[in-house]
Amino acid sequence: MQTQQLIINVPRFPFHTRQLIPPPGVTEVAGTLLYHGHKCRILDYGTLDAVAFFTNSPWRDCVESVSNWWEAKSRRTLWPQALPGDERRLRRCINTERARWHAAIAEEIGRYAQARLIIFHASDRSDWLGVLGVVQALRAQGVTLPCVAFGDWVGCYGSALLNGAQLLDGLCIDDPAASLALLADAPEKPETWEQTPNLLLRRAGAWMATPRKRMPSQVVHAAAAYHEAVYPAFAAGQKLRLPVLCQAQAANLPANALPESLWYRRHPNPVDAEVLAEAMATLALREKCSCFVIGDGGHTPSVDALAQALRRWTLPLQYIRSLSTPDALHCDHKGLWQSGCRGVSMDVPSASQRLLDTYFGADFTISEVEKAMRRLRDVALHRTVQMIGPVPEDDYHSHQELLRFLGRTLPDALHWRLPQVLPGSTWWQQAPHYGFSLSFKRFEQWVNTGDTGVIHRPWEGASYCRMRGWPAQALWKQHQQCIHELESLGLPPEPLSSTESFIARILGGVDAVRPVGTSFQEAIYTLDLQSLQYRVQDFNQKVRNTQVPDSLAAREAAHLARMAAGN
After folding, report:
1. pTM listed for this prediction
2. Dist. CA 410–CA 509, nearest whole Å
3. Alpha helix (H) ranges present in 65-140?
4. Hey, which residues does 147 pair with through a beta bridge?
5. Coil, strand or helix at 50
């Protein structure tokens, strides 16, 4: 039965650069719903209009009055330094403004009288808290439509979110595109929900889990919905025209830090390279997109196959992608560059072989990492390395190994983050063995409630976890001390994500990545609407310059003719 669904993306507030990028997974779910004959509409609130909503609010005045605003020290983390009184004022203001925004979103959702199912997307904790706020506002306004949530945060934490999700009807924890398409067939019938796999459902005040099942792979990238009728915010220039696609559902975590619920993502079935290449070419024609992000990567054969398929299209596309170390070592590096790849992100949790083997469960060696980095440098690919530290087993020797590794490889960007213990992972199940102390009570509070961090203190993000012998602030000081040492050696950790660096390179060129990227983030945080509008328009104009081959233009003309004929 054909029904209409709403797919809602409620980003964090205060905003972040990634809010202006199409969220991964949302367009794939929309495309699969359309493929099954349903109607859907993506309501994305990470837009310039959302920034305009707050432009004349008290938040703007509150931010401008904060003392010690945007000091040089804080530019590394791109968050403000505030005095205690300023912080309290910021928190009160943000709670008020966020509630006002959620109420406005709920009012707009309530106008869609034909909707039968509301699907929320949550990629991280701040998104999840936004989802809870909007659902609460919906229920307060008398909207009784069934609501379900999906996304990386939901898939990773699953049942831990149930205490905070009392107003939701279900959580989709796996394979959202196929599972939600089945659920949409009859959203009003409870028996349909209970027969749909990969769901956590609320029934009679309790929660039940439907069977976990990976349904047959479906070609969702070819049908990713970016056109105006489904995704008006993207078509209207309210977002950066930078589609985020996935070649496979590969987890971006060390093996021992990977939750049990995501183990299947270590060896996924990649999307067919020809299908993904055609999807990128189609987006280049229909939506005038010439830049892409391949968020998750498959194995080496699929990486090379995608590069070969893109070269056959002869489109002037650019993209960045994530690669595992074995893929980065064995793939065709020249082929990557010739296909339009301009940057690669690699996860190397530690530079110590001892820690890689015993602590992180890695399937590669440091020698292989260094060899891969040299080959990537030879073809001028921008190399981003994701590292974790400090961990309980770090010592003087592992620290010196880190400095030697960075000195030999000289990555273009280094992301240095604190360890995170996720439920169901090896670190979680054997916490004392790995040097962690967990508080399950604090974990339940952290995952479902609380502020998203007006003043950025990274140790607050893991308030339920402590490292053996490391008080929270001491851990952060050690983390910062390591950053200062790296800066003194000319290897400062990059405050921008690989995607943000890619955007900055397109806007300002290779030599202006840091200043352009930081000024973009500062404009978002301070709600400088005029600056943001100029930068988004500039980016979208630069990526629209795409030459389409005659063969693809003819194919698209035939497709439009069939649509006009009612086929």
Report:
1. 0.87
2. 20
3. 84-109, 125-140
4. 118
5. helix
